[in-house]
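Protocol step 4 of 6.
Sequence for Exodeoxyribonuclease III (Myxococcus stipitatus) entered exactly as in the expression construct, tag removed. Do not edit the line below.
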Amino acid sequence: MKIATWNVNSVRARQERLLEWLKSAQPDVLCLQELKCTEDDFPMEAVRDAGYHAAVHGQKTYNGVAILAKEEPRDVVKGLSDGVDDTHARLIAATVGGLRVVSAYAPNGQSLDSPQYEYKLEWYGRLRRYLDTRHNPDEALVLGGDWNIAPADIDIYDPKEWEGQTLCTVRERDALPVRLRAVGCVPEAVPRHAALLVVGLPDVGLPEEPGPAHRPPVRVRAVGAAVDGGGHGPGGSQGQAALGPCAGVAGASGLTEGNGP
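Step 5 output, structure tokens:
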């Protein structure tokens, strides 16, 4: 199974690029973040014509997440479902081909003195509880998203420049669920704040950490995974996973030639 994740930063603005990439790459599953549109405004018909089903959790102007899949997503859950009054559309989960897939867009935090920073820490606490209560540690689980945290200095091109800033503070790193910190599914040149993690599948084929000097000074927008064996975890026939950057991954956030999965 080929899975990818992409912070699309407005699905309507990048609809043409999205459809082009789906046609050329043919992923089985694509997690999208920052749709910046409601479910009614999502290009459902165009995505369907491209051969994909879509589970969408949208919001006007901000946030929004989706899971696109060749097989219809089932058992869809929108939000963290914890009873907290939160209108931000930041998480959606669904089962595709026996594999549980989560697409998430974590809060940015803005600045250390902003209420959004505390909201970010609270949101990660809620995410931790969501994972602990809804997903067995041995379950085959894919977490695709923009996590808005660099878990370690190795994930930053210039750690000194970012020292003490949002994305890199001790409180943020401590708030990151252990499951996300421990997986270590980070291929060369793909920072973990915009990454796809595979949990519950052995033999994740990744190179050793290359060091900050090898990190690109651009934001990597997407990363893909090839999952073999139907996504079965240790409880069934064991699958394997390998991660790597998708073609055309580097680029500025504008509608430039290099911006895409």
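Step 6, annotate. The longest strand covers residues 99-105.
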